[in-house]
User: Which sequence fits this backbone?
């Protein structure tokens, strides 16, 4: 209370011209604070909104493509293990001589030796589509030539 009284006394002792200048300075400081704390951040968000909107639209389209792919895979009939194995056998030719397959019960282990990345990617897509199988375990290492070595384990006859 004493501080307020002191300020009022001090204000009355200042000339009217100085009072106007002090009020103008206060208004300018208030406007600057309003700009920095309220308007500038809001305008920055507004300016960045179109780019964020485009990025979110692209992400939405990607998610919709993935959803359509998942629905297409779910619509496919479940293969019996023997049918999945036959499809896997026919796809093994894509990997060439650098791959061997060992089947035990409902799992297939594919051993890779110097398989090119493009052939492996194409083989994985084919196996996913035709044998309705995907790797459940993968131990892959890229060799100095840029090809892949390692093992892939796949479930047969069930969606994975």
Assistant:
């Amino acid at each position: 209370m004493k501080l307020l009284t002191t300020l009022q006394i001090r204000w009355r002792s200042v000339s009217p011209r100085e009072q106007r200048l002090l009020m103008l300075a206060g208004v300018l400081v208030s406007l600057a604070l309003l700009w920095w704390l309220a308007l500038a951040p809001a305008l920055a968000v507004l300016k960045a909104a179109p780019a964020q909107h485009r990025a979110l639209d692209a992400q939405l389209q990607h998610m919709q493509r993935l959803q359509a792919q998942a629905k297409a895979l779910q619509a496919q009939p479940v293969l019996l293990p023997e049918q999945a194995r036959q499809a896997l056998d026919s796809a093994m030719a894509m990997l060439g001589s650098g791959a061997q397959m060992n089947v035990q019960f409902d799992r297939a282990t594919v051993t890779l030796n110097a398989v090119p990345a493009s052939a492996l990617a194409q083989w994985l897509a084919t196996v996913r589509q035709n044998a309705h199988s995907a790797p459940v375990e993968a131990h892959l290492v890229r060799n100095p030539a840029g090809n892949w070595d390692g093992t892939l384990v796949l479930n047969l006859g069930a969606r994975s």
